[in-house]
């Protein structure tokens, strides 16, 4: 049987094991990745077994992802070091790189390829959905700390995804629930919000996730569906050549552009390499079955291949290493101080 390439759709599953329908969707030619949530997790051994089962069903490659930023967004907790919110590293900048390594090493040890991190949004004191998920309200410091965190991930063997391009920190509304509008002009966004993206792209950032936010002075479409943002600014102006992951097409911020097939088609046309369709099983099936087959694209596959994890230690080796013990204790202490 011919091995399937990494497809253009990221899906999810409902539980801690695989159903027959889950197996069908994982084996679909258009599937390329699967994102895990808290509902899929009980403990490290269980999630490692689930990931092995997912890979066994796929007749080819599949990427496994999770949101494991720390703070409010850490899907795996029992048996994993509790990570503080990104804003905590401003007080302990020397721990940012170690935290990136720790987060990545713990995930790689159970078979996860990558976490959607780091957050590159610059907090403006407005957005509750971002808030302390941002490394700083100072764009230069946010870039430095996020860069250190990303470097730590790389040392562990994990690719990084900067989100939410070009910046979600200046809007109050939550794009999970509605479509936020940012009315600032492009020069303001360039000088403030793009600094972390510019710096990490120059350092080799592997992936970017755009925001479901309309920047009305730049384009009428949300950034994740906008060729202006993804092609003219991200690819050409910033010189980014990594993978672009859409944010979840089930979010209300995506609904403005049409039904699920229209969302998927427009995001792909704008330049997204991978389309996330989560928390809506019927929508995922619809997109998998009806998305036009993408022509073989070598660069597209190369970008996604770079998201594969390459951890050197299994979980037992990791937990017995002096490096893990030292860093885990430091990060847990910082997390407790910011609880």
Distinctive features:
alpha/beta; 339 residues; 12 helices; TIM Barrel; single chain
Itemize the secondary structure elements and their pairings:
Layout: E1 9-11, H1 20-26, E2 31-36, H2 44-57, E3 63-66, E4 68-70, E5 73-74, H3 96-108, E6 114-115, H4 139-156, E7 161-165, E8 181-182, H5 186-192, H6 194-202, E9 207-210, E10 214-215, H7 227-237, E11 243-244, H8 260-270, E12 275-276, H9 281-290, H10 298-305, H11 315-319, H12 322-337
Parallel strand pairs: 1-2, 1-12, 2-3, 3-6, 7-9, 8-10, 9-11
Antiparallel strand pairs: 4-5
Helix pairs in contact: 3-4, 4-6
What do you see in this structure?
The protein has 339 residues and is α/β, with parallel strands linked by helices. It has a single domain (67-337), classed as TIM Barrel (Alpha-Beta Barrel), CATH 3.20.20. The protein is built from twelve helices and twelve strands. It has helices at 20-26, 44-57, 96-108, 139-156, 186-192, 194-202, 227-237, 260-270, 281-290, 298-305, 315-319, 322-337; strands at residues 9-11, 31-36, 63-66, 68-70, 73-74, 114-115, 161-165, 181-182, 207-210, 214-215, 243-244, 275-276. It has a five-stranded parallel sheet with strand order 6-3-2-1-12. Helix 1 (20-26) links the parallel strand 1 (9-11) and strand 2. Helix 3 (96-108) runs parallel beside helix 4 (139-156) and helix 4 packs parallel to helix 6 (194-202). The mean pLDDT is 94.
Shape by Cα distribution: globular
CA gyration radius, whole angstroms: 19 Å
| The CATH homology group name | Glycoside hydrolase, family 3, N-terminal domain
> Which structural category do the helix and sheet elements fall into?
alpha/beta
Q: Examine the coordinates and then state which fold CATH places here, giving the name of the CATH topology.
A: TIM Barrel
Total count of strands: 12
Please report which band the strand proportion falls in: under 5%, 5-15%, 15-25%, 25-35%, 35-45% or over 45%. 5-15%
Profile the largest sheet.
Answer: 5 strands, parallel
**Residue windows where pLDDT falls under 50 for at least 5 positions:** none
| Number of alpha- plus pi-helical segments | 12
Mean pLDDT over all positions: 94
CA(first)-CA(last) distance:
51 Å
CATH architecture: Alpha-Beta Barrel
The H/E string reads: EHEHEEEHEHEEHHEEHEHEHHHH
Q: Give the C-level CATH assignment.
A: Alpha Beta
């Amino acid at each position: 049987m011919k091995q399937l390439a990494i497809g253009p759709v990221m899906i999810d599953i409902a539980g801690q094991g695989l159903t027959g329908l889950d197996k069908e969707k994982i084996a679909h030619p258009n599937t390329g990745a699967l994102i895990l949530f808290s509902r899929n997790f009980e403990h490290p051994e269980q999630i490692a077994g689930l990931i092995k089962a997912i890979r066994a069903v796929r007749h080819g490659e599949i990427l496994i992802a999770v949101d494991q930023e720390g703070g409010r967004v850490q899907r795996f907790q029992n048996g994993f070091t509790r990570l503080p919110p990104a804003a905590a590293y401003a007080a302990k900048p020397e721990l940012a790189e170690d935290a990136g390594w720790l987060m990545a090493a713990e995930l790689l040890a159970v078979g996860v390829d990558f976490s959607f991190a780091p957050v590159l949004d610059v907090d403006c004191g407005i957005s509750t959905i971002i808030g302390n998920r941002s490394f700083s309200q100072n764009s230069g410091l946010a870039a430095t700390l996020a860069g250190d965190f990303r470097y730590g991930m790389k040392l562990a063997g994990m690719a990084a995804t900067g989100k939410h391009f070009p910046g979600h920190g200046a809007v109050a509304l939550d794009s999970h629930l509605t479509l936020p509008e940012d009315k600032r002009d492009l020069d303001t966004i360039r000088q403030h919000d793009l600094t972390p993206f510019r710096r990490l792209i120059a350092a080799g950032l592997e992936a970017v996730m755009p925001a479901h936010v309309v920047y009305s002075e730049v384009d009428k479409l949300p950034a994740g569906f906008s060729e202006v943002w993804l092609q003219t600014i991200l690819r050409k102006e910033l010189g980014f050549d990594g993978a672009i992951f859409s944010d979840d097409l089930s979010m209300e911020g995506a609904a403005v552009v049409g039904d699920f097939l229209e969302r998927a088609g427009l995001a792909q046309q704008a330049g997204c390499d991978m389309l996330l369709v989560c928390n809506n099983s019927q929508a995922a099936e619809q997109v998998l079955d009806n998305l036009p087959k993408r022509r073989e694209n070598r660069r597209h596959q190369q970008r996604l291949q770079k998201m594969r994890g390459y951890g050197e230690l299994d979980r037992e080796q990791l937990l017995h290493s002096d490096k893990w013990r030292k860093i885990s204790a430091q990060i847990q202490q910082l997390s407790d101080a910011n609880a």
